[in-house]
Task: structure prediction
Amino acid sequence: MKFFSTLLLLAPLTALASPTLYGRDALAAQDDAKAYKRDSQDDAKAYKRDSQDDAKAYKRGQDDAKAYKRDSQDDAKAYKRDSQDDAKAYKRDSQDDAKAYKRDSQDDAKAYKRGQDDAKAYKRGQDDAKVYKRGQDDAKAYKRGQDDAKAYKRGQDDAKAYKRGPDSQDDAKAY
Result:
């Protein structure tokens, strides 16, 4: 009985010690659970922070994309405006050049016409000069005709004088 009594004494002690050991294990398990919970919460918070940071970065990326798109559209609009302005200026310059060319051509045509008119007037002047020259020639011929008439008259007078004879008084007057 001694063994049994020892066992009887030990059994309640073991039973009493068992909850203490179990309690220590339970406390350790609770501490582990709390630590695990804390770690999990910390991980969750870190994950949430990382996710929020990623979301913010993604949002910033979208904002950057929108800004880039706006800038690109603004650049495209400015380029289009500049191109249209350049085209309008080129058109204006071309039209101005065309008008100036037309004016110059018209002026040249008028000057050419004046030149033709001057040439016609010059030709008329030459024709008038020819007529004047013919008039002078006619005047000379008329003068020659008068001279010829005078010579003819003298010839007739000489013939009359010859007919009258060498000693005639009319002859003396004639010479």
The mean pLDDT is 81. Residues 25-174 form one domain. The helical segments are 2-164, 169-174.
